[in-house]
Amino acid sequence: MNFTSIRVITGDVARLVAFYEQATAASAAWSTPDFAELVTASGTLAVAGERTVALFGAGSAEPAANRSVIIEFRVSDVDAEYERLAALGQEFVQKPTTMPWGNRSALLRDPDGNLVNFFTPVTPEAIGRQDRRR
Length: 134
What we know:
- The protein has helices spanning about 15-25, 80-85, 125-134; strands spanning about 5-10, 30, 35-40, 45-50, 70-75, 90-100, 105-110, 115-120.
- The protein has a four-stranded mixed β-sheet, with helices on one face. It has a four-stranded mixed β-sheet with strand order 5-8-7-6.
- Helices cover about 25% and strands about 35% of the residues.
- The two termini are about 15 Å apart.
- The chain is globular, with a radius of gyration of 15 Å.
- It is of the alpha/beta class.
C-alpha cells in the first residue's frame, strides 16, 4: 500500500489553492473549479470544494473544521522558508523551533485554520528517519 494524497475540503477552493501555491511555490493542476491538486515528489495535496462532499456521502466532511491534522512539508531550510513566508505576510503559530524528535519546524495556519508545518530534519537520527522513507 502507498500513501498518495491528502484532500482538504474548503468553502473557497481558489483562496485555499492560492495559499498553498504561495506557501509551496508549486503550481496547482485544476481538474474542475471545485478540485485542484498540488503534486510533489512524495505526495499530492488535493483541494476540493464543499460541493464535492456529496460524492462521498452527504455530511461526510465539513470545511474548516479540522483541529487534529497537521499538513506537513519537508523543506531543505525551514528558517529560509520562514523568512520567505513571513515577508509575504504569513503569520506563524510557531517560529522555527527544534523539536525533541530532531526536526526544526515552523507552523502556520492556512486560510481555513488547518495547521501547516514546514520542517527540516536537523539531527542525525531525524535525517536518517527521513532518508529511510525515500
